[in-house]
Amino acid sequence: KRHLISAADLTRDDAVLILDTAEEMARVADRPIKKLPTLRGRTVVNLFFEDSTRTRISFEAAAKRLSADVINFSAKGSSVSKGESLKDTALTLEAMGADAVVIRHGASGAPYRLATSGWIDGAVVNAGDGTHEHPTQALLDAFTMRRRLVGADSGLGRDLDGRRITIVGDILHSRVARSNVHLLNTLGAHVTLVAPPTLVPVGVEQWPCDVSYSLDEVLPESDAVMMLRVQRERMNAAYFPTEREYSRRYGLDADRMARMPGHAIVMHPGPMVRGMEITAEVADSDRCTVVEQVANGVSIRMAVLYLLLGGYESAAPAAPSRTE
Ligand code: CP
Question: Residues of the chain with pLDDT > 70: what percent?
């Protein structure tokens, strides 16, 4: 595969290969010199039209750990604010010799447009497009679940079969939820979405998951509970839920967390709004994997860049043994 646009495009073998390659990449982080020469001489451009903390920093760290040259482009402060189009921005990057473009954009479909337009030759990686998809987030979430719920040495072929994952909150605007539903289903997990009726997308019955409106009923059956932020910036006031009512019905506090099985974990893609969808007590508890997810994101993004740009034809596990 040349691009990573959607988690829905990944076969079970693709997904397991990325997760297993990420396990190898994670071992690099434990070394005194956290760097491989694999992508020396290649250029990765981080093209961000929307704000980001975790995704942008971890793609930069991942590319640098693979020895690629990294160019960070933020639409704010660029000629995009003067009206320059995605096409002309892409042609500029192509002229600078980008081997991979990691793109975050407010418009669903922008990464697909970039990958299929012919404007650039390099690999395109979707770092979140509108309300559509965020495939590397779903991969790092699956990686975190596999480590916590199955074991770090799961190895090729073992995945999340039969695990019960609950995703809670603003499903309507969540590219993280969409990517997770597709990927978790591909990996054999059972997904239940929990949300207020106004934040459930039309057509959700076509998705490979269940929908519930009662968090308290679903919690005792969950191996992992993923809390989502309510994305006020994508809403109009007419259907924005009040913070108090939302927290009462859909927020995760210590009492609710106690209803989860003892082994179950709490996840959040970030950014969190403490006091709204998750209390500070839950966010800071050792059952919450939010910081672990960020660390795992670097390994997953290293694996994705490595497989797209350099290593797909060679055996993935061999790569990390080559140190500089
Ligand atoms: N999870 C996530 O995409 O976070 P950022 O918006 O900070 O990149």
Answer: 92
The pTM of the full predicted model, rounded to 2 decimals, is 0.92
Number of domains comprising the chain: 2
Report the CATH number at residue 89. Answer: 3.40.50.1370
The reply to whether 143 and 177 lie within a common domain is yes
Distance from Cα 129 to the centre of ligand 1, integer Å: 12
Cite the DSSP H helix spans in the chain. Answer: 12-29, 54-65, 86-95, 110-116, 135-145, 175-186, 215-218, 243-250, 254-257, 280-283, 290-306
With a cut of 0.95, is the ipTM above it? yes
1 in any annotated domain: no
User: Average model confidence (pLDDT) for the chain?
Assistant: 90
Domain hosting 163: range is 135-292
Q: Calculate how far, in angstroms, residue 36's C-alpha sits from the geometric centre of ligand 1.
A: 25
pLDDT single digits (tens) 140-175 = 999 999 999 987 554 444 579 999 999 999 999 999
Amino acid identity of 119?
Answer: W
- Are 142 and 47 in a shared domain? no
270 C-beta closer than 6 A to ligand 1: yes
